[in-house]
Design a protein that fits this description.
Blueprint: E1 9-10, E2 15-16, H1 25-28, E3 31-36, E4 45-50, E5 62-66, H2 70-80, H3 85-89, H4 94-112, E6 115-119
Antiparallel strand pairs: 1-2, 3-4, 5-6
Helix pairs in contact: 2-4
Length: 124
């Protein structure tokens, strides 16, 4: 069953429900979905809240974390200043512009704030 029953893509003269997720309500329990206008592209974000989900009893001993502090944020901003943003924003197609920006941003984010595994007993 289609989860969203509202438009998720709005352009000048058209609206449509694209890029939706499909959910089997018989297996997922009670689901509530809300649109969120993010202003980043012509696609709105969908926030899905799932209630009454059966959780597994298995407990994981490790989690992934990122160390983000004032020094690492300053370094991240410094690195972003050296990107050639003109090439990204010279593009006329909004989806290509968004994807190029996101790829550049995430490449710098992941290199500046690497994901680390942390066990419950270890301190990082």
């Amino acid at each position: 069953m289609d989860t969203a029953d509202f438009p998720t893509r709005i352009q000048k003269t058209t609206i449509s429900a694209t890029d939706n997720s499909f959910t089997d309500f018989s297996r997922q329990g009670n689901i509530v979905i809300f649109p969120i206008c993010n202003g980043l592209s012509d696609h709105d974000t969908q926030l899905i809240t799932i209630y009454d989900v059966g959780l597994y009893d298995q407990i994981y001993n490790t989690i992934n974390i990122r160390r983000i502090n004032e020094n690492s944020l300053n370094e991240f901003k410094y690195i972003l200043n050296f990107e050639l943003w003109e090439d990204i924003f010279a593009e006329k197609e909004v989806n290509i512009t968004f994807n190029s920006f996101l790829n550049t941003f995430l490449r710098n984010f992941h290199s500046n704030f690497p994901s680390m595994k942390k066990t419950k007993n270890n301190k990082i």
